[in-house]
């Protein structure tokens, strides 16, 4: 079983395709889908759709673990943009026949560290240990996507660490 974790964002959408091993797991592919802030919203959403479609076609994950919405009340425009990004991601998964499991950031942090208030650095350390990653993880979006994928595998009962 393979799960793709998705940390949605308009500027950067982090993703990671993860599969379980007997001990720990393995990252098949990870990265960021970057959009150009100088482009229109439609062009940026199109970039996310096409690049994510390509990743899904290549890796055929069995499940998408999508981070649930988290937006501060003082940034309503960010909430609207994130909603549009999440809509494109959900549509992409639907078009590819991939079921979605939404995961709250606090649930993911708690599942990995025992605390729903864990820092980004704590998440990175745990993800590196579980997935046997020796190099540094390039961005918080990618490490969050890896953590979401691990949480998705755990929810399915396929993976325990």
Mean pLDDT: 94
**CATH fold name:** Nucleotidyltransferase, domain 5
CATH class: Alpha Beta
**Straight-line N-to-C gap:** 16 Å
What count of domains describes the coordinates?
A: 1
**Strands, total number:** 5
In the CATH hierarchy, the architecture is 2-Layer Sandwich
Label the structural class.
alpha/beta
CATH superfamily: Ribonuclease H-like superfamily/Ribonuclease H
Which spans of ≥5 residues are poorly predicted at pLDDT below 50? Answer: none
Helix content: 40-55%
Radius of gyration computed on alpha carbons:
15 Å
Strand composition percent: 15-25%
Describe how the helices and strands are arranged.
Blueprint: E1 3-7, E2 12-20, E3 25-34, H1 41-59, E4 63-67, H2 76-96, E5 100-103, H3 105-113, H4 120-130, H5 140-155
Parallel strand pairs: 1-4, 4-5
Antiparallel strand pairs: 1-2, 2-3
Structure explained in plain terms:
The structure is a single chain. The chain has a five-stranded mixed beta sheet with strand order 3-2-1-4-5. It is 47% helix and 20% strand. The protein starts with a strand and ends in a 6-residue tail after the last helix. The model has no long low-confidence stretch (mean pLDDT 94). The protein has five helices and five strands; from the N terminus they run βββαβαβααα. The longest helix is centred in the middle third of the chain and has 21 residues, at 76-96. With 161 residues, it is of the alpha/beta class. It has one domain (3-155): Nucleotidyltransferase, domain 5. Strand 1 (3-7) and strand 2 (12-20) form a beta hairpin.
